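Batch queue: ligand-bound targets. Current item pairs a single chain with magnesium ion. No template structures supplied; prediction is de novo from sequence plus SMILES. Inputs echoed for audit trail.
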Amino acid sequence: MIRAVTLDVAGTLIVPFPSVGAVYAEVANAFGFDADAAQLEKEFPAAFAQVRSQWAMPYGINDEDARRFWFSVIDVTFGQPLPYEIGCELYDTFSTARRWRVLPQVRAALTAITAAKLPMAVVSNFDARLFPLLDELQLGPFVSIITSASVGRAKPDPAALLAACEAMDVAPTNVLHLGDSTREDGEMCAATGTLWLRCTAEGIPLAELTAILRATP
Ligand SMILES: [Mg+2]
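Prediction returned. Tokens below.
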């Protein structure tokens, strides 16, 4: 029986706007670089995957390490170490709502979950930037927001999910988790017996969510 809902953030609720490459280029160019948005957008996925695979704890073991993680992703994306100020600006700017787009169906989904009287919590491979960001985007209401940096473990490790379950006083087997990543969200749910609703670039599959909520007494 579903008693609570947890949600991933990036790729599930929101995506970078207009794109990672465009934001990287805009900020770097403001500092006098000659950066190309399309080129950076092309380089980013491999750079991100490379740094994530090499980092001791992907996304950072705490908020300081998260900063270093993203500085490294930025440097590899640009193919050169960037001045510290640019790294800071790029890191900080993604804590603001204007750099993200809320996916379709998301606000309707949150309303439906709230109407079903199920508590919601965020379980995200993210860091301290998530708190001001979700606040500014006016997404919620969340009982708790658990980031990988705050628990020192990244999904698919279930640490963040278990912390969210504790905050909502539910067992992981009574939780529905919404997330877009097979590896991070899917594997975590498989390990904890949590029901996983897979989300896509189209946003949260509202019909499937509604069916699950309707089956909840
Ligand atoms: Mg995601």
